[in-house]
Amino acid sequence: MSTHWRFLIILHLLRFSLSSSHPIKSNPYLQFPCKPPHYNSYPFCNTSLPIKTRAQSLISLLTLEEKIQQLSNNVTQIPRLGLPAYEWWSESLHGIATDGPGITFNGTIQSATSFPQVILTAASFNRTLWKSIASATAIEARAMYNVGQAGLTFWAPNINIFRDPRWGRGQETPGEDPMVVSAYAIEYVTGFQGENWRADGGVQYGFGEKRALRDDGGSDELMLSACCKHFTAYDLEKWRDFTRYNFNAVVTKQDLEDTYQPPFKSCIQQGKASCLMCSYNSVNGIPACAQKDLLHKARKDWGFKGYITSDCDAVATIFEYQNYTKSAEDAVAIALKSGTDINCGTYMLRHTQSAIEQGKVQENDIDRALLNLFSVLLRLGYFDGDPAKGKFGKLGPQDVCTSEHKKLALEAARQGIVLLKNDKKFLPLNKNGVSSLAVIGPMVNDTSQLGGDYTGVPCNQKSIVQELQEYMQKTSCAIGCPDIACNTSNGFMEALSIAEEAEVVIVVAGLDLSQEREDQDRYSLLLPGYQMSLITTVAAVTKKPLVLVLTGGGPIDVSFAEVDPQIASILWIGYPGETGGKALSEVIFGDYNPGGRLPMTWYPESFTHIPMTDMNMRADPSRGYPGRTYRFYAGKRVYGFGHGLSYTNYTYKLLQAPNKLSLLGSIKPKSKKNILHQKADGVDYIHMNEVENCDLLRFYVQISVMNKGDMDGSHIVMLFSRVPHFFKGAPEKQLIGFDRVQTVSYQSTETSILVDPCEHLSIANEHGTRILPLGDHTLILADLEHTVTIET
Ligand SMILES: *[C@@H]1O[C@H](CO)[C@@H](O)[C@H](O)[C@H]1NC(C)=O
Ligand SMILES: *[C@@H]1O[C@H](CO)[C@@H](O)[C@H](O)[C@H]1NC(C)=O
Ligand SMILES: *[C@@H]1O[C@H](CO)[C@@H](O)[C@H](O)[C@H]1NC(C)=O
Ligand SMILES: *[C@@H]1O[C@H](CO)[C@@H](O)[C@H](O)[C@H]1NC(C)=O
Ligand SMILES: *[C@@H]1O[C@H](CO)[C@@H](O)[C@H](O)[C@H]1NC(C)=O
Ligand SMILES: *[C@@H]1O[C@H](CO)[C@@H](O)[C@H](O)[C@H]1NC(C)=O
Ligand SMILES: *[C@@H]1O[C@H](CO)[C@@H](O)[C@H](O)[C@H]1NC(C)=O
Ligand SMILES: *[C@@H]1O[C@H](CO)[C@@H](O)[C@H](O)[C@H]1NC(C)=O
Question: Is the pLDDT of residue 191 over 80?
C-alpha cells in the first residue's frame, strides 16, 4: 500500500472520529478552523471578504479572556467558534526541525530532508541554491501541516550578524557580512513564503492554479510564514556572567545602521517577511521587545506587515532578568504597547488580565495585536476550510524526502565545503591510485551530529566513514577520542595503528553541539581537549601527509595545521547535513571541485582576549581594541573572510566599469549649494537623503573569469569596494556584490554585477546617517583595483 493511500485512509478515519461525540478532544492534530464540522457562517470563515474584515470580525466575537489566550504560542481551542488549538511555534532553519512544539515526527511523516547547517550553505554564495532550499523546506512543511504534523508559522531564518567567533549560534547564520546576510534573508523568506508558487502558480509541481489576490492593502497570500530573528543586536548566549537574558548590547548608531540592522531591513523590505522576532537582550538599555522606536520603524519605514513575536519568554525577561520594569504587568504592558503582538511562553497569559485591571493595558492594545496575528493566519489560508481543497492541499508525504530534495541537500554540502589548504595539490585523491584509507576522529562513525542545531529527523543520515567506504572499500576507522571534548588520549593507540597501515589518512576533528550551541558560547578558539594532539600524533606516523577535515560552525584556530607540512590539506565542512559525508567523499576523490568560500573571519586564539560583550565593530587603537570582521579587523587571521581554494586556479579581467559617476541630475536642487560645506576629514560627501533617482546611477561591472586548470569548477566572484581614504569609521573594504559562476577548464566565463552607488558605495557616519563620499572609490576584485570617481 502506498503511503499516500494509507494517508487517505487515516484522514478518512479521523474525519469520522471528528464528527463523533467529542469532536475537539479526539484528534488535536487534524483539526482546522472553518473546515466542516467547524465551518460557521461568521464572516471570518467567508473567503470572499477582505482579510482585514475577516480578522476584525473574529476579534469582535472573542471575549476578553479568549483574546488574552491568543497572546501565547500555544493557543487554546475555542469550541464555541469551532476554533481548534493552534501552535505558533514551528522551526525550519535548515529543514524541518524538532525544536518547536508545532512539529511532530510521529505521524505519517517520520522524517524530513535535513539540509546542511546555514553557515555551510552560506559558504556556497549561491542565491539560487539558498532559495531552492527554502522552497523545498516549504513544500515539506506544508505537507506536514496537511497531515497535522506542523503549523504554518515558522521561526527562521536567524539573520543576526556572526559578530564574535565564540558565539554558539553563529552556525545558524549566514556569517559576518551584512550584505551576504541580507541576501540570504531575502532568498530564504521569499522561497519559504512561497514566492515561486505565486509566480508560477504551482505549475512546476502540477498543483492548483494561480489564485487571484483578493486583497486590499497588499496583504498577499502566504504559503508559509517566515520570521526574521532575532531583532536586534543579539549574538551572545552565555559568556562569563552574561547571558542572553540579561545582556545589554551597547551599540553605536553607526554600527546599528551599517551592521546590525541591514539584514532585518532587507528581510522585511525585499523579503516581505510576515514575522519579526524581538530578542532577549537589551539594546542600549532597552529590552528588544520594548524597543518601541525600532519596532515602529520596521512597520513605518520598512513597510513590515506581519506579526511580532517575542523570543521565548522574552517578555518575562524584561522584568525578571533585565529588571527594566517594576512588575510583570508593566513588562506585558510595555511589550504590547511597543508593538510586540504575541509572547512565546505563558507570561502574557498569566499577567495580561491583571495588567488590564491595573489600567496598564487597554483592550484595544490586544485588539491591535490580534489584528496582526489573525491577518497572518488568514493570509496563510488557515481559516479557508479544508486544507486538502486549498492550493497546497495535494502536498503530502510523497513530497517529503523526495530524491529531488535529498539531491538538493547534497548539492548544498558540495557547494559549501571550503578547501582551506592544499599543499602540492595533494587533493583530490586518485580513485584508482589509492589502495587504502584510514579515517580517524570522534565524528567519523556518527550520524547524530552532522546537522548542527535546529535539526529534525533526517531522511537517511549516513556517517562520514560509510560514505568514504562507498569510494574505497578498504577504509578502516578509529575514533581516536571518545567524543569531541576529547579529554583523554586513551584512543590514540588504536588510531595510530590504523594510520600506520593505510596509504592515505583522513582525520576529522573540530566542533559539535557539545562545544557550541544555543545557550553556550565557547571560551577558546582552539580545538577541544586533546584533539590537536591527536592530529599531530597521527601526522607523525603516516606514510604521506594527512588530510584534515574540520567540522563545526564557529571558526577554529588551526594555525598549527596550516603550517605543518605533514598536514597536506584542510577542508571545512561545517555541519554538512544528511548527505554531508557523500559530498565530502566526492570532494576528496575529485568528483566535485570545491568552490566554497568562508563567510566569516577565522581569528587566532589571541582574539579571545577581547570581551565577547564588546559590540563595537570598529577598531579603537586607543584601547587596543582590534575591531571585528573583515570590514574592520586588521589583525592577524588564521583564514580571512572569503578564503577558499579550488582544484583549479582562476584569474580575472575587469571588462567594463565606469571611471566617473556624475551626481548632477541626482541631487535635489536645494542641496547643491550645501555640498561644499559637508566636509569630513577633508573629503566631500553628500547626505543620502539629498540624492534622488538613485536608479539612474546604477552600473554593471563586467567581469571575465578564467579557469586556468584542468578541472571544471563552480567559482565565487566577490566584488568589494573601498571609499576614498581616509574616512573615519569607514570599513577597510565592503563586499558589494557576489556571484557563483560555472566555469570550464581553460576557458573564460563572463558575469556582471550590478552596483547601486546609493546602496553600495555609501557609508554610515557616526550619527547613523548614510552619506556618499565624493571622490575616488575603489572597486576591488581579488588583486585587481579600479577607480570610480564620484563627482557632482
Ligand atoms: C460572504 O461574503 C460575501 C460578500 O460580502 C456575501 O455576498 C456572501 O453572502 C457571504 N457568504 C456567506 C456564506 O455568508
Ligand atoms: C498548551 O496549552 C494547553 C492548555 O491550554 C495545555 O494542556 C498543553 O499542555 C499546552 N502545550 C504545551 C506544549 O505547552
Ligand atoms: C505525537 O507526539 C505528540 C507530541 O509529542 C503527542 O502529543 C501525540 O500524542 C503523539 N501522537 C502519536 C500518534 O503518538
Ligand atoms: C533583577 O531582579 C531580580 C529579582 O526579580 C533580582 O534577583 C536581580 O538581582 C535583579 N538584577 C539586577 C541586575 O538588578
Ligand atoms: C560504526 O558504528 C556502528 C555502531 O553504531 C558499528 O556497528 C560499526 O562497526 C562502526 N563502523 C566502523 C567502521 O567502525
Ligand atoms: C572526560 O569526560 C567524561 C565524559 O565526557 C567524564 O566522565 C570524565 O570524567 C572526563 N575526564 C576528565 C579527566 O575530565
Ligand atoms: C594556483 O596558482 C598558484 C600560484 O601561481 C600555484 O602555486 C598553485 O599551485 C596553483 N594551484 C592550482 C590548483 O593550480
Ligand atoms: C547554484 O545552485 C543551483 C541549485 O543547486 C545549481 O543548479 C547551480 O549550478 C549553482 N550554480 C553554480 C555556479 O554552482
Answer: yes
Q: Are strands 242-243 and 238-239 parallel, antiparallel or unpaired?
A: antiparallel
Same domain flag for 433 and 293? no
* Same domain flag for 471 and 388: no
Ligand nearest to the CA of 467: 5
Strands (DSSP E) found in 552-610:
567-574
| Ligand positioned closest to the Cα atom of 39 | 1
Number of H helices, E strands in the chain: 23, 28
Is the pLDDT reported for residue 6 higher than 50? no
Residue at 639 is within a domain:
no
Q: Is the pLDDT of residue 768 over 90?
A: yes
Question: Is ligand 3 within 6 A of the CB of residue 622?
Answer: no
Do the domain assignments include residue 407?
A: no
* Rounded-to-integer distance, Cα 712 and Cα 715, Å: 9
Q: What is the mean pLDDT of residues 683-693?
A: 87
Counting ligands in written order, the one closest to the CA of 468 is 5
C-alpha of residue 82 to centroid of ligand 3, in Å: 22
320 and 395 share one domain: yes
DSSP string, 3-60: HHHHHHHHHHHHHHHHTSS-HHHH-GGG--TTSTTS--SSGGG-TTS-HHHHHHHHHH
Average pLDDT over residues 610-627: 97
Note whether 665 and 557 are same-domain residues: no
Indicate which CATH number applies to the domain containing 678. Answer: 2.60.40.10
Q: Is residue 46 within 6 Å of ligand 1 at its C-beta?
A: yes
Active-site hit among 164, 311, 399, 453: 311
- Residue 437 is inside which H or E element, if any? strand 437-440
Residue 487 CA: which ligand 6 atom is closest?
1
Is any ligand 7 atom within 6 A of the Cβ of residue 393?
no
- 311 is annotated as an active-site residue: yes
Band of pLDDT at residue 524, cut at 50, 70 and 90: very high
> pLDDT band for position 3 (50/70/90)?
very low
Q: pLDDT digits over 286-295, tens only?
A: 999 999 999 9
Which residue CA neighbors atom 14 of ligand 5 most closely? 477
Q: How far apart are CA 553 and CA 516, in angstroms?
A: 8
**Residue of minimum CA distance from atom 3 in ligand 4:** 320
- Asked if the structure places residue 54 within a domain, the reply is yes
Assign residue 192 the CATH number of its domain.
3.20.20.300
Domain boundaries, position 284 = 3-399
What is the tally of structural domains in the chain? 3
Grade residue 123 by pLDDT with cuts at 50, 70 and 90: very high
Per-residue pLDDT of 38-51, as tens digits, reads 888 999 999 999 99
Domain boundary among 370, 399, 428: 399
